[in-house]
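Lay summary. Proteins are chains of building blocks that fold into shapes, and those shapes determine what they do. In this project we predict the shape from the chain. Here is one chain we studied, written as its sequence of building blocks.
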Amino acid sequence: MKQLRYFVMVAEELSFSRAAERLHMSQPPLSQHIKLLEEELGVKLFNRTRREVKLTDAGAVFLRESRLLLGQMRTAVSATVRASQSDVGTLRLGVATSALFDILPAFLSLVRGAFPGVEVSVADMQSQDQISAVSHGLLDIGIVHVRPDRDKLMHIPVHDDTYLAVLPEGHRLAHAEHFALADLADEPMVALSREHGPAVYDAIVASCYEAGFSPNFKHKARSPLTIFQMVRLGFGVALVPRSYASSGYPGVCFRDLPPTAGKVHMEAIWSEKHASGLTRRIAAEILPRLAAVRPGPAPAP
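And here is the predicted shape, written in a compact code that computers can read:
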């Protein structure tokens, strides 16, 4: 790398004396380095006369490639230095869909306040996929629905989300004075498909059973916005985590349900085996604070 820097300096100055001056060295050692480099490569890099120094065709090619190599070296050094610091870098974060509405904004606010040099790369992923990705070092931290298959990972509770009922704006129960989950027993329902949200799906089924009925899932959706649109079009009613409602949606009404109607439990996971210094600091300093953040109120009916 030293020889490359010396060569580039001479090539830019086209003068051994001026290059030596810029390098803060005498000219003879510089000339010797260039001679050794040419001998090692087996090609002539410069045509020298008493009056001028010119690059050969091979030297011009080597100058281009040397600049690329030196640039890559500077990038490698910079990245290595950043990696040694636990307050800069990129954090690869996975989030379950329901975490996008309340938990992710709170997490980003806390990280940006404490670690302004950190870039957060976010992937919307199912909990099971996150567990696998964190286990293999493909994600640094995941925010998942509590699952039994994450026991080999570090984990901390970050949020408990209650449920809301979603009704078409003109539904008979949309503005009823008294409302309970059991009132939906005979209603067709729209649900997040179990394939896309198994934890949410199972928790909703359990909540309906607890209220004394089996949910009549007539339609399946892949995202919260799809659920809201299908409800708005009159396909049925829905139960969703409270955080979904923070996005708002025209033509639907959100009704509160008591905490006894069930909760979605969420936690953050990370791998001690694959954790970087940055991941460990965020796990220690940010995740406990995230658990204390409470979501805002749902939109009024």
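What the prediction tells us: The radius of gyration is 31 Å.
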